[in-house]
Amino acid sequence: MKKNYVVAGAILLSVNMFAQEQPKVDSLKNYYEIQEVNIFGKDKNEGPIHRVDVQLIQDFNKTNVVDAVNLLPGVSITQMGARNEGSILVRGFNSLRTPVFFDGIPIYTPYDGNFDLSRFTTFDIHSISVEKSLVSVQYGPNTMGGAVNIVSRKPVKALDIDGQSGVGFADGTGVNSYFTALNIGTRQDKYYIMGSASLLKVDNYLISRKFDGTPLQPSLERVNSESMDVRLSAKFGYTPNKTDEYSFSIISKMQIKTSLPMH
């Protein structure tokens, strides 16, 4: 009688062990496998980069960098300081936190770090790019707002000649500005040469017609608002292959700008 109890106990133990060895079904895992989503994209994410090219600049007749950058979303322009300097704001950060580069070279002013970006004309510029959010460490410090890079023009054919001239009109005063520019260059198999010359002259700009004249400002033509920008540049580039490029640029700029009276 005792042997029968032992056999029965062994059979029950084997049944319990067999039940424990059965694989468990994870219903939650199966649910998420059904809901799986595959995302396909580019390997390299350059982030939010906005660019304005030379064609867009000419279509909107933007003669300086500040007005050209104003075509891009998320960028604001301002005239600030006692020197009435043109500047840009990227996500609320000015040029002290959003550095400006010309062909990858940073532009700085030793005095207070601010510079008049509206004095940079667009006649020899190929494009202007604005990088927002996080940028590469290669741009250096002070890039909380992003970075702005101005790319100069390069010739695209053996004889590349481009010129433009124009005048600006103010309602009631006739012609108040004019500009002229000429770009001549050549592109060969392993090198290119580009020369540019430009002149931008602004006599004045108008204030509101609702303004009542004063002894310091008797007419609608703003007093001491004239400016003149003369720019000469030359660029030589060496391209030994399809991936490498070495360039040398020389820029000479003369500007005359009168300060607005503070009253």
Please give the structural blueprint.
Blueprint lengths: L1 H19 L6 H8 L14 E5 H6 L5 H5 L5 E6 L4 E6 L9 E3 L2 E2 L18 E7 L15 E6 L7 E11 L3 E14 L3 E12 L24 E12 L7 E12 L6
Parallel strand pairs: 4-7
Antiparallel strand pairs: 1-6, 2-3, 4-5, 6-7, 8-9, 9-10, 10-11, 11-12
Features:
mainly beta; disordered N terminus; 4 helices; 12 strands; five-stranded mixed beta sheet; five-stranded antiparallel beta sheet; 37% strand; single chain; 263 residues
Oligomer: single chain
Q: Spans of 5+ residues with little confidence (pLDDT < 50)?
A: 1-19
Q: Give the amount of beta strand, in percent.
A: 35-45%
Mean pLDDT: 80
What does this structure look like?
- This protein has 263 residues and is mainly beta.
- The chain is 14% helix and 37% strand.
- The radius of gyration is 33 Å and the shape is globular.
In short:
By secondary structure, this protein is mainly beta. 14% of the residues lie in helices and 37% in strands.
